[in-house]
Amino acid sequence: MTAVRPDIAPKQAPEATRFPTGFVWGAATAAYQVEGAAAEDGRTPSIWDTFSRTPGKVRNGDTGDVAADHYHLYRDDVALMKRLGLKAYRFSISWSRVQPTGRGPAVERGLDFYRKLVDELLEAGITPVATLYHWDLPQELEDAGGWPQRVTADRFADYAAIMAGALGDRVGTWTTLNEPWCSAFLGYGSGVHAPGRTEPGSALRAAHHLNLAHGRAIEVLRGQLPATAQTSVTLNLHQVRPLTTSAADADAARRIDGVGNRIFTGPMLRGEYPEDLIADTGHLVDWSKLVQDGDLAAISRPIDVLGVNYYTPTLVSTPEKGAGSSRDDGHGASDYSPWPGSEHVAFHLAEGKQRTAMNWSIDPDGLYNLLMDTSRDHPQVPLMVTENGAAFDDYVSPEGRVEDPERIAYLHGHLDAVQRAMADGADVRGYFLWSLMDNFEWGYGYSKRFGAVYVDYASQRRIPKASAHWYADVIRRHGLPETGPS
Length: 486
Hints:
By secondary structure, the chain is α/β, with parallel strands linked by helices. The protein has a single domain, classed as Glycosidases (TIM Barrel), CATH 3.20.20.80. Helices cover 39% and strands 13% of the residues. It has 16 helices and 13 strands. It has helices spanning 31-34, 47-52, 70-84, 95-98, 108-123, 139-143, 151-167, 180-190, 200-224, 247-270, 275-281, 287-290, 295-299, 364-377, 405-423, 466-477; strands spanning 24-28, 88-92, 127-133, 173-178, 230-235, 240-242, 305-309, 314-317, 346-348, 383-387, 428-434, 453-456, 461-464. The strands form 3 sheets. The protein has an 8-stranded parallel barrel with strand order 1-2-3-4-5-7-10-11, surrounded by 5 helices. It has a 3-stranded mixed β-sheet with strand order 6-8-9, with helices on one face. Helix 8 runs antiparallel to helix 9 and helix 15 packs parallel to helix 16. The longest helix has 25 residues, at 200-224.
C-alpha cells in the first residue's frame, strides 16, 4: 500500500476561505460497492447479488463478490483514512449480512464486522456515520414482493432495531435510507438497478413504502439511541431546470421536481404528498388506498440532519424542444422510464459544460442552487452534503502515481459552491466526498472510478490519487487553497 505524502503544515488559509468550526470533513462508501465477502460469515444474497449475476444487467458481467475487499482490509482502509485526515466516515450496513433473510434474529458474525469497523474508526479518531440502507435489499424480501409491499417497511423497522442495539452505544449519527429515489424508480421503474423491474405503479408504491420505512426506523432509533444521537435521511435531490422559459418547459420541470424530489421531501418534511404529484400519477396508483391512516405522521417524524447528494443538474423540456427522452436522463439506458407520470419529458445536457466519465455536466452552481433552494424550502432542518464527486478515466502512471487534475477542479468548484451557499445563509454542517475509493459502480461494474483512492482490483493495492492529497490538505487547512486548481 502506498503511503500518503507526509503531513506538512499548510499556510493558514485566509478567514474568507475557511469553513466554520465544527464543519465535518468526510468520505463515503456503500456496503455492496466495497465490502466483497459476498458469501462469508452467514451473508446471503441481496438483490444486487442476484441482479449482477443476471446476464446483461451489469457491464462486463461484473459483480460485487470481491469489490474492494473492504471486509478483509478495513483496518488498512481506516489507517489510510487517518493518514488523509478524515474526520468522519460514512458507510452503509449490508442488511443481508446481519439479518440474512430480512427477518428474525441477527447473525452475530455479521454484526461483529461492523462492531470491529466502528471500533477501528473510533480508535483512529474518525466519527462513524452509519447508513442502514444503500439499495441492497435481502433477496428473500424481494422474493416476497420487495419494496412495493407494505410489509417490507415493517421488516426494515425490525432491522433498524437490531442495528441500534448493536451499535447505538458507539455510532452517534444514523441515516435511514440512501437515495430512495434510486431504489424506487431505477429499481422498479426503469429496471437499470436491482431488482430490475419495470412497473411504474410498483415504483410509486415502493416510494411510499420507503418513506414509511424511513419513518418507522426513525421511531425505532429515537426509542433506542441516546438523546445525543442524530438521525437523518439522504436524498439525491434533483436540481431541476427548464430548458427554456416557456410554460411547457416550466411544467416539465414541475413534474420532474414532483417525482424526483417532492415525493420524498413532501411527506418526510411537510407531512403530505403534493397534490400535483398525486394528480400526475393517479392513473398509475390509487393514493387514497396506498397511504393509510397514520402513515404521514409516521413518515414526518423529525430528523436532525437532511443529507443531500449532488453530482449534476437536471435539464428538462417538453419533447418538441429537441433530442432527448426520459431514458437519456443520465441514470442508464432503458426502454422504460424512471419518471412515472412524466414519461414524455425530455432530458438534456447543458451546452458548454465539461463532462465527467459518466457524461454528466460539471456544474458547481447546481449544488449552490440546490442547497439554497432546500434551505429556503425546509429551514427547520440542517443540511449535510453526503455525496459529491466525479468519475474520470484514472490510470496509474509509470511512476506509480495517479494524477487526476479534473477531479481536483471538480471538488474545488463544488466546495466553493458549498462555502458560497453557507455565506448566503444555508445551514450546511459538513461534506462527504464520494467516494473514498474506487469501487463497484452498480450497473457500470468496475468501468467507472469515483474514488479519491485508486484500487488495483487484481492486487487490491490502494494508491491515493492526487485528489486525495489535495483533499487531505483542504482538511488540514479547514479551508480551500487561496488559488483554484491550475
